[in-house]
């Protein structure tokens, strides 16, 4: 799942996700409207039952991973690390992988001979590579979103300057026309 939202300076955003035993949660975020290099947020996973923090990231662009040993409810929270004066536009992607569940079903359904073990290892390797490729794809999408946001912000300023230039050119045209006309003005008697 991927989405974007505005993070208010005084608020903390939290989302809840129920994770089954053996699930892997991969979470990635990026601040799209960064003002300075020091701007960052704090993102963390918190166990909703015990309120203990499980994983933390404090950067402009980061990711968190969590593999569960039991079924649990996780809070995915984000907030401003330092007191800021502006709202941050954040792009978020997260995905839940149920790899262990699928592998357990394969083990249950087959008689585990050597060929089955090799097949299991190949499936495990393919699954691992698919997960890594998906994470790279999410990173690429977030970079594209950040570039798109910068292009949109630059377009706003370009349009503003173009409008100012048009007003200056039109006013110069009117002034010059009036001034030149007044030079050739003759009085009629």
TrEMBL record:
It is a single-pass type I membrane protein. It comes from the Eukaryota. Keywords: Membrane, Transmembrane, Transmembrane helix. The chain crosses the membrane at residues 161-180. It holds the Pfam family EMP24_GP25L. InterPro entries: GOLD_dom. Residues 12-98 form the GOLD domain. It is found in: Membrane. One of its GO terms (cellular component) is membrane. Belongs to the EMP24/GP25L family. This is GOLD domain-containing protein.
């Amino acid at each position: 799942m991927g989405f974007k939202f505005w993070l208010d300076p005084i608020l903390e955003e939290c989302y809840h996700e129920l994770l089954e035993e053996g699930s892997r949660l991969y979470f990635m975020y990026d601040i799209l409207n960064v003002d300075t290099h020091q701007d960052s947020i704090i993102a963390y996973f918190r166990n909703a039952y015990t309120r203990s923090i499980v994983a933390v990231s404090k950067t402009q662009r980061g990711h968190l991973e969590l593999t569960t040993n039991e079924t649990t409810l996780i809070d995915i929270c984000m907030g401003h690390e330092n007191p800021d004066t502006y709202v941050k536009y954040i792009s978020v992607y997260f995905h839940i992988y149920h790899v262990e569940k699928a592998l357990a079903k394969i083990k249950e359904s087959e008689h585990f001979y050597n060929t089955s073990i090799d097949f299991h290892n190949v499936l495990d390797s393919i699954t691992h590579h698919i997960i890594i490729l998906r994470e790279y794809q999410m990173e690429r999408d977030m970079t594209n979103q950040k570039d798109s946001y910068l292009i949109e912000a630059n377009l706003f300023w370009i349009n503003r300057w173009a409008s100012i230039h048009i007003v200056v050119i039109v006013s110069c045209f009117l002034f010059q026309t009036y001034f030149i006309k007044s030079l050739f003005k003759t009085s009629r008697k």
